[in-house]
Predict the structure.
Amino acid sequence: MVDFSKLLNEDESPIPIEPGELFQSLVREPAYEYVRSVQTEVLDAWFARRDEQDAVIKMNTGAGKTMVGLLMLQSSLNEGVSPAIYLCPTKQLVEQVVAQAKGCGIQTVEFGADREMPPEFLNGEAILVTTFQKLFNGRTVFGIPGSGRQPVHLGAVLIDDAHSCLSIARETVSITLAGGSSGYESLRSLFRPALETQSMGTAATILNNDPRYYMAVPYWAWMTAHASVARILSDLRETEPLRFSWDLIKDDLEMSHCVIAGHKLEITPHIIPIERIPSFTEAKRRFFLSATLVDDSVLLKEFGVSESAVNSTIKPKARGDIGERMIVAPRLVHKDLTRDNALTIASAISKSKRNAVVLVSSKERSKYWEDNGAIVAMGESVGPMVSRLLESTGNFAVLVNRYDGIDLPGSACRLLIMDGLPAGMSLYEQHLMSVLPNSPQQRANMAQKIEQGLGRGVRSGSDYCVVLLTGVDLVAFITRRENHAFLSPETRRQIEIGQELAKVSQQEVGVPQKRLQDLVIPCINQDGSWKRYHAHKMTNLDKPLTDEVRLKLAAMERAAVEKFRSGSALEGASIIQKVLSELKMSEGPDFGWYLQLAANLTQKIDPARAQEMQRKAHEANRNLFRPIDGIKYQKLASKAGLQANRVLAWVRGHTDSNAIPVAMAAMLSNLSFGVSFEDFEKEWAHLADVLGFAGQRPEKEFGNGPDILWNMTDGYYLVQEAKSEVELKRKTVHKSEAGQLSVSVNWFKQTYGEGTPFSPILIHPATVCHEDAFAPEGTLVHDGDSSAKLHRKLTEFAAALASKAPEAWSVEEISELLSSHSLTPSRFRKGFFKPLESAR
């Protein structure tokens, strides 16, 4: 018998490294007959640049990026670039990669129970497939400096679902201490004075262990005490919260953020210290695969990917193969449609032996779905639920805070519901959202999470599913024109398709629920006319936008922090100031954020100069830290132009007429008694802007003055103290509350002059002053009845604006609507406040 193995071993033919030849040389299963053209296009582009250390590969879901990744790694092994490792965000994806590698004849290995390095991997005979966290943790088996374990030198490293692995890296390197633990209590006590200097009221709620409130520690207080922090944390290094993070963050503590809430605190570095993992940073080749990563700048900033790789992403020319998604917001079909209607459809879908999946941001938000028959999965239970969805139909599942890192192809998900905006789960994410609420930086981050969530249910170009968007905050976000620039061209087009279909459905007769069902059924049933319509609309897509500014800012941040780490703090600050000058950034929330970063670096060497910079940063973004010696108050000036002109600008910022009532509902959801004072005050100040007035939060932004100050277009001011958390059953205004308003009135008179017209306002459920309370003369109250009336008028106003397209309105028409709904300055003051009565 012929010994083919012997003949193979004696064969002196060169081992193929070109991906196409390599693929043909593999012993494959029938399902892997050929490499698709889109894969060949990407592989050829990479092979021509294979000597570059970094390669960023972006392919739509289902385009075969796993195969591309495996072939790149095997090509590297054949060329002598070894060992090679394939990193996945989850164990589920590890299993999928191993299965696909087996099918196409590529040798892979995994870690065994002994956790030792497989010799086949070390010898370059097989690709190691494992989770990203196996490599990136403070006790990694791949070794880190000072660990006593020699780092493993890697030839080729591939990170699949790079966006998911970024989140894992951030979570791994962060320290979270639970409220009541010794570490938490020690650090909260240490920084109590610094927190109280920033906001006495918020600090008090944190000290009362209220989990709803959090504050970031000012960087100057943190840097001054970081040696004490290091001692406290070092004593805890063997405990669960620090076991896998301490050796990564310990040398980066001084340049870290600390956010303290009433129930926990979190410490996280400004930039992930990826250089602590030499196996990654020193690898000869590094591949970053992504399906949905729109913002490539985060790879540059957090993973240290070269600017050239980020600027020349490898991706196929052909686009539009994202899969078939009908993305519909029920509220845009009819104003009365809510998540109850989405629930009805989800229940019907699961009963018809199809899978329905809901994505929510929190356990609290999942309760509604659980109470109505859905099975909730979060944390460790997500994996088993995904397996169940892959293996069976007729399921109705809810996944909590899992917008990426999971695949639900084919029948695993035929209906996907996104209920509400994705929310930052970490304290640091929540802090960023609070200090940069409407900045391009945070809107891009939010769009990225939405994009990731939308991609869960369609995992190939031939896959399909219906996506329902519920929650007024989510619908308001996706219908703002300014946010569309942060979405991929494919997703943006599919959202536009959904809005177009909603408009058509509005013209139909019948019950709204039936109209919604009739709209989505053609996609569920794969109606031919729907498929042709979708395919036609998905042609001639816009080219993806390259945000050169964000790339430059990301490179700036990384370079500045690296200078700080190397002992050149002032050079780091100079890098930031130089780039901001080159970009002509001199105002706005993002400018303030980056200038605060420069001040943070400067604090190390020149605290006085840092405080000067901090003052300018706060002037640009009043959500940032207030300087140690306070700041000069900036008077609230009237906005130029007519009230109706500014309202019209807000109206035209929406892509759909029905989006206006949704945006109004999103705002009103935070303008009720029982809402936290932070959310209420922020939205009440925002309401002033929507109505064409000017709003400000002097106490929050400057450390002195009322909770909220409005300057109406007729030059009249409203000096307001908000008590949104007071129980609705309260019958009287307390002495302390009346006194607080008196202090604010005195501040206003001193600041704006005795002759400036104003009214003192209490936002409070009670309209009677307690017998020992003395409120300023002329005090008005916005009580529960007033709030209900305002909600009704604003809702009616938004409904009227929805009667025709945003661009069809004129200034004169808007002016008439403002007057008829009591929203002009004088009518507003008369219509939504009551005189405060005395109990005496």
